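Input.
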Amino acid sequence: MTRTSTKRKGDALIEIRSWDEVPSFRSEREEAEFWGSHSFGEEMLIEDPIGDPSLPPPRQRTSPVSLRFDVDTVKRLKALAARRNKGYQTMVKEFVAERLYEEEKREGIIGQPRAS
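Output.
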């Protein structure tokens, strides 16, 4: 690519509708110049419903929740999480999920035999 092929302010981007339209690049600079004047068309933005079977399934989205703990509890959580090589917020989520499961099981919400 040459200097004359760079995008000027106000120019419309050229839409790419297929990966076949994307050339092989000899350098990062050449690739940057290309993507500076091109964009993905609608066809490229539609998510593949089948997905790539070699990739793990996407994680569920989470919702932020604010909890308040006393300083000593947070210190204990962080210390325990560090011993387990994980983040303390991750460990708290695991604790809540485990306890929720146990409570649902105790109340018979889950784990009941199915009627035939």
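DSSP finds four helices and two strands in the chain.
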